[in-house]
Amino acid sequence: MILYPRNLALRDGQAPVVRLIGVGNAGSHIADHAARSLGGLVDVVAIDSDRSSKPSSPGVQCIDLGPLTTHGIGAGGDPELALEAARESRGDLQKCVAGADVLILCGGLGGGTASATLPFLAELARSPGAMVAAVVTTPFSFEGRRRALQAGESLKALEKHADAVVHFENDRMADLQKPLNNVRETFSECDRILLQAVGAIANLARGGAPLPVSRNDLLAVLRSSSGGFVFGAHRAEGDDRAVHAVAGALASPLLDQGRLLREAAKILVHISGPGNLRFDEVATVMQAVSAKAADSSLLHIAVDISQGHEVGVTLIGRCGGQARPAQATETPAAKPGTADLTLTAEPPKPVVKKAKQEDLPLDPVSKGPFDRSQPTLFGKEDLDVPTFVRLKARK
Ligand SMILES: Nc1nc2c(ncn2[C@@H]2O[C@H](COP(=O)(O)OP(=O)(O)OP(=O)(O)O)[C@@H](O)[C@H]2O)c(=O)[nH]1
Ligand SMILES: [Mg+2]
After folding, report:
1. Any ligand 1 atom below 6 A from CB of 284
2. Given 39, 74, 217, 257, which is the most exposed site by the fewest CB atoms within 10 A?
3. Pocket test for ligand 1, best of 21, 23, 25 (most atoms within 8 A of CB)
4. Which residues of 57-90 are buried (b: 16+ CB within 10 A; e: fewer)?
5. pLDDT tens-digit series, residues 337-381
6. How far apart are CA 357 and CA 211, in angstroms?
7. Cis preceding linkage at 5, omega within 30
8. Which CATH number fits domain 18-208: 3.30.420.10, 3.30.230.10, 3.30.565.10, 3.40.50.1440?
């Protein structure tokens, strides 16, 4: 039996309020796309300390984070500064989490704004009692050790405050792309995967008819923190739409041709389709998933009648005990589309063998929870502190 500490019961007869909050540049980007693709079915909010990264979609409510602290130009990779900005905007953030039954918080960890604000928001959401799921990325290894550490600290704090944390490694997602893809294609493919996951969780949390997934089931799949998150989604229309949709979802590189489903203790299967979705199509999907899953795997099914002509299949699961090491640099290079692509639910354990930072005789400056991060020093300048902050500091 699973016990849930939070009251997840809905007010009688009311649809759940699902709110997606994107934080920082990457989070605002996701919010922008989600507002278009989720078609107003969920509230979408973007929060950033950088006014230049505002989403263009009219369906997004935008909140400027800490305008007095950051002057609207971002936190420049500094989570301490971003935390001050979040504290300054505490009232706005409190209003932002109020009244939601389910909050989906997303952003890229490793910089300042999202790293500091996402755990702050998750903690604020505790008192109204909303279910809080975070969908985050951790930095590419080429972004340096400091960002990896900042992301690791933030991930730990998120795991403390959120009900579920789904963690995608940027390295891992980039490994899935064709090596010859240009940078823009690689990024937009990473964003597409993230958006699919965020959209699927939002749709599942919203419920649906005729067969909604209970949020306890959703939480049971999302929250088990021991293993990796596995995910696949596909849509198809026309003849054999159910066959093609489930085949596409099972072929998702994030499921390694469905192999990882066999290691998942719990799998959530969400099938969406138009009003003429047939019972035999649902059965076809479930049979195809069952054939790839272990006999002991617990399948949760949700069926949602939606607009349009397509049948959509989304698979979400957790692998028990198969989590790959968090640092991609510590493992052999993955072959696109064929490697062990389980996305870890564990915080990264940054061990960078090559990085050697000499100690310089500088005055120690407290960085709070990020005290253990290694600065990138050149002369007496910390290059991780953005130029505008360094210049201001010298005035
Ligand atoms: N997948 C993906 N990851 C991104 C993208 N942009 C940024 N990231 C990741 O997100 C991390 C944080 O970057 P931002 O979102 O720009 O940072 P922020 O939260 O706005 O923080 P500050 O700008 O430092 O205040 C980066 O280190 C990247 O790893 C993107 O377009 N796609
Ligand atoms: Mg930013």
Report:
1. no
2. 39
3. 25
4. eebbeebbbbeebbeeebbbbbbbbbbbbbebbe
5. 222 223 333 333 333 333 444 444 444 444 444 444 455 555 555
6. 56
7. no
8. 3.40.50.1440
Query: Mapped to the 3 state alphabet, what secondary structure does 327-371 carry?
Result: CHHHCCCCCCCCCCCCECCCCCCCCCCCCCCCCCCCCCCCCHHHC
Residue 74 CB contacts under 8 Å (≥ 6 apart), including other chains:
25, 48, 49, 50, 52, 53, 112, 113, 386
**How many of the other CB atoms lie within 10 Å of CB of 306?**
17
Q: Is 55 close to ligand 1, i.e. is its CB under 6 Å away?
A: no
Q: Are the beta carbons of 159 and 165 closer than 8 angstroms?
A: yes
Q: Ligand 1 pocket, 80 CB below 6 A?
A: no
For ligand 1, mutation pick of 33, 137, 168 (most atoms within 8 Å of CB): 137
CA of 139 to the centre of ligand 1 (A): 8
Contacts of 365 (CB under 8 A, 6+ apart): none
Token couple for 259: 């192999």
The pTM assigned to this predicted structure is 0.75
CB 175 within 8 A of CB 339: yes
Residue whose CA lies nearest to ligand 1 atom number 6? 26
Which of the ligands is closest to the CA of residue 23?
A: 1
CATH of range 229-319; options 1.10.10.10, 3.20.20.70, 3.30.1330.20, 3.30.360.10: 3.30.1330.20
Please write the tens of the pLDDT for every residue from 226-255: 567 788 888 999 989 999 999 999 988 777
- pLDDT of 133 over the 60 cut: yes
Give residue 9's pLDDT.
Answer: 41
Q: From the CB of 26, is ligand 1 less than 6 Å away?
A: yes
| 107 within ligand 1 shell (Cβ under 6 A) | yes
